[in-house]
Structure to design on (340 residues):
């Protein structure tokens, strides 16, 4: 298991609905033949967990290329930002890739690391028959938290938060990660509610850009037709498989709630703690629910809805926490307040 960086390059990619990994072979071969003078690294496949496809996965498969490549014909040229990843090699390729998924995600979970909304597989030989390097992409929660704090809080609070954050890394144990985050959130709690909201909601998982564009396009098209754009967005969410339970509208307020992370375990839970652990999506929180954490942390979950509705309306929205398992409730629910 290696902690390293991936990305920071331009890539030529094909975006498609992948049903089986062997479909990658023809794509890699065609790209290698077409762009062999520009290729600067091994073939890779980014698998998106959130998309509108109903079977298989929406993927971006391709190669890193030299910056001098300006056109790619039927393929796309995209900039891939630098990512921090946990890497493990499936030495038997697709035969033991599933085993390596269990290994790397299990390791990350024990450390309380949060994955981003996609995973990357690297194919050094440009074929699925060879070795595969699996990359768990870390959601950089702490970095986002510190960045938001620097822009909002005073020097004293930031100094204290930096001391607590300084030991958070890929090697830290989950219990210590939780305790450090708890101290950081407690310091944020000294501040006004809007500051808490701006800091924590800015730490949420980053919603896929292409999905957010669909919301914006739906909103704009409804405006052009003279229809209610908010209703149009909600109807789109109901029809498109890339969204969870659709929200409920009341005027300029949108109500949404998170569904259980593990519905089966949630239904079969025998204690309140078991039920809440099955409900919560955040590893360091659900494994330490009995140790207390300010409900301010759930503004992170509010950030999921903030991204959706700010993308749709192209305006700033406000999201309030209505209920939170960190506040003794049995679910986490939110109210999005749209601009008048």
């Amino acid at each position: 298991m290696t902690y390293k960086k991936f990305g920071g390059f331009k890539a030529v990619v094909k975006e498609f609905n992948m049903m089986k990994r062997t479909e990658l072979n023809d794509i890699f071969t065609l790209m290698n033949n077409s762009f062999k003078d520009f290729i600067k690294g091994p073939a890779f496949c980014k698998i998106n967990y959130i998309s509108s496809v109903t079977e298989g996965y929406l993927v971006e498969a391709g190669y890193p290329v030299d910056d001098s490549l300006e056109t790619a014909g039927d393929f796309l040229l995209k900039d891939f930002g630098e990512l921090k990843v946990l890497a493990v090699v499936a030495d038997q390729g697709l035969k033991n890739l599933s085993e390596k998924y269990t290994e790397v995600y299990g390791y990350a979970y024990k450390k309380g690391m949060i994955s981003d909304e996609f995973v990357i597989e690297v194919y050094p030989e440009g074929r699925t028959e060879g070795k595969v390097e699996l990359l768990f992409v870390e959601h950089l929660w702490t970095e986002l938290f510190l960045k938001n704090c620097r822009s909002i809080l005073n020097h004293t609070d930031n100094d204290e938060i930096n001391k607590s954050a300084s030991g958070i890394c890929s090697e830290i144990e989950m219990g210590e990660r939780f305790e450090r985050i708890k101290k950081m959130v407690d310091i944020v709690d000294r501040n006004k509610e809007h500051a808490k909201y701006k800091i924590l909601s800015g730490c949420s998982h980053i919603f896929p850009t292409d999905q957010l564009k669909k919301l914006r396009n739906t909103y704009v098209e409804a405006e052009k037709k003279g229809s209610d754009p908010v209703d149009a967005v909600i109807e789109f969410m109901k029809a498109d498989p890339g969204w969870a339970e659709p929200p409920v509208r009341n005027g300029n307020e949108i109500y949404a709630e998170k569904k259980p992370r593990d519905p089966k375990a949630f239904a079969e839970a025998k204690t309140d703690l078991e039920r809440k652990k099955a409900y919560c999506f955040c590893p360091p929180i659900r494994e330490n629910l009995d140790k207390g954490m300010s409900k301010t942390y759930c503004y992170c979950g509010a950030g999921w809805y903030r991204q959706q509705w700010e993308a749709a309306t192209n305006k700033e929205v406000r999201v309030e926490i209505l209920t939170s398992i960190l506040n003794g409730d049995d679910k986490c629910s939110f109210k999005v307040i749209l601009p008048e």
Observations:
- The mean pLDDT is 95.
- The chain has three domains: 2-138, 141-198, 209-337.
- The chain has twelve helices and twelve strands.
